[in-house]
Design brief:
This protein has 134 residues and is α+β, with helices and mostly antiparallel strands. 48% of the residues lie in helices and 13% in strands. Strands 1-2-3 form a 3-stranded antiparallel sheet. The longest helix is centred in the first third of the chain and has 22 residues. It is flat and about 45 Å long.
């Protein structure tokens, strides 16, 4: 997740408050999608996933530590000489099929300005970003 913020951090108007709000919305979307699509007979498994994997990530102290690290260190792939590799339309269509885009609030898109970055969204909120580099 830190990689996604490295790009945005270059905006000088980007504050910890906006970073905090974006994180809050991000994790709220993940919890909501799990609640809606995780089978009810696996409620204990969902609770375990939320407790073990998501709860530790939803912590204002760790968000502040991440914020401090991102503002002091830059590890952008382009800054170390890598170039983004464009994601094909075929890969986009496959991803749309996997998330059953027509019947769920999940959407998959390729960033307009960053053709090497694919985004999984839940109700318009970015949940996961992947990028290809070479």
């Amino acid at each position: 997740m830190e990689k996604q913020w490295t790009i945005v951090i270059k905006n000088t108007n980007y504050t910890f408050s906006s970073y905090f709000n974006k994180n809050f919305i991000h994790y709220q979307s993940i919890f909501e999608s799990l609640e809606l699509y995780f089978p009810s007979h696996l409620a204990q498994a969902r609770l375990a996933m939320e407790s073990l994997f998501l709860a530790p990530q939803v912590c204002s102290f760790s968000w502040f530590q991440n914020w401090e690290e991102m503002t002091s260190v830059s590890d952008s792939c382009s800054e170390i000489g890598l170039q983004g590799m464009r994601i094909s339309k075929e890969n986009l269509l496959q991803a749309k099929e996997v998330v059953n885009e027509r019947e769920t609030p999940f959407k998959v898109r390729i960033e307009e300005e960053r053709q090497h970055e694919m985004v999984l969204e839940w109700k318009g909120i970015s949940v996961v970003r992947v990028s290809t580099w070479m």
